[in-house]
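Pipeline run #58 for the internal structure catalog. This entry was flagged by the ingest filter as a single-chain record with no existing model, so it goes straight to prediction. Upstream metadata was stripped on purpose; only the residue string is passed forward. Reviewer on rotation: M.T. Logging verbosity set to normal.
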Amino acid sequence: MDAVEAKLAALRGTSAVSGSRYLGECHRTHDGAWHAYANACGTRIVLEYAGEVEVKDANEDFDVVAEAYARVMSGPFAEEGGRIESAAFARAVASLGG
């Protein structure tokens, strides 16, 4: 998360923050790459892309996860910061793998 916060800090005060919530690649290891997304409410979403996979549709992946997250958090039983126990959210995330 430090890499995500550093990327956000670098973008603060520029038009890039308001133009796109996708932060791009924030960290890479030999096992994969982490790409991040941040919204105006302070939610950060990090997706790991395993191996040497070329990431082409990260924006679309984050749109899927962010929309599913918004639906879950809009529910009457949502707990901010709590574990997400939603079959619909799990299906949305699982759809990214294929």
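catalog note: The chain has one domain: 2-97.
catalog note: The first strand starts at residue 22 and ends at 29.
status: ready for reviewer M.T.
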